């Protein structure tokens, strides 16, 4: 879209145009941000200096994960690594996750929640099948198994270019966490 949308109809038209261009009606992911200059960089990377090596980012995330899982409120519950990461993200702990939604309206909510109207908001649209075709050479959406450890799983897919490595793949989290599925 060249010009910012001025109303819901223009947003809907842009979404429909995207769907028509990729020829895929379902499975599009949406992400709303309050400032159109924000890049698709997870909160953990945004909090670190540019040029931080990927191994350092993973090390920091692992340390935060270990601290988080010892939180007294979590004791006595059985959580998978994935569920703990979702909880970390939900409670504002910086991770390598980017929140995406299957709903354009949910992304619109996040794009306009606490939005400073002096800036343009943005809704990102993503075809995760195409992303995986580019990075994994297959269009399937990867579904992590509940029992598989988060860090081992990501290590098997990570594209490591040493500095600010982009873990480029679409993961389907539905069925693992009800809060994620609701978005």
From TrEMBL:
InterPro entries: FRG-dom. It comes from the Bacteria. Residues 24-124 form the FRG domain. This is FRG domain-containing protein. It comes from Planococcus antarcticus DSM 14505.
């Amino acid at each position: 879209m060249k010009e910012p949308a001025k109303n819901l109809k223009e947003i809907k038209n842009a979404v429909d145009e995207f769907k028509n261009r990729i020829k895929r009606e379902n499975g599009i992911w949406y992400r709303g941000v309050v400032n159109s200059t924000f890049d698709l960089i997870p909160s953990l990377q945004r909090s670190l200096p540019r040029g931080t090596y990927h191994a350092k980012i993973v090390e920091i995330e692992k340390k935060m994960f270990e601290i988080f899982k010892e939180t007294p409120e979590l004791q006595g519950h059985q959580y998978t690594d994935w569920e703990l990461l979702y909880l970390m993200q939900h409670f504002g702990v910086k991770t390598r996750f980017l929140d995406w939604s299957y709903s354009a309206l949910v992304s619109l909510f996040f794009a306009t929640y606490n939005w400073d109207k002096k800036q343009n908001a943005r809704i990102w649209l993503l075809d995760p099948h195409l992303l995986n075709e580019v990075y994994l050479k297959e269009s399937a959406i990867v579904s992590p198994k509940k029992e598989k450890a988060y860090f081992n799983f990501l290590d098997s897919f990570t594209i490591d270019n040493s500095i600010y490595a982009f873990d480029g793949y679409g993961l389907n989290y539905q069925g693992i966490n009800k809060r994620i599925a609701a978005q």
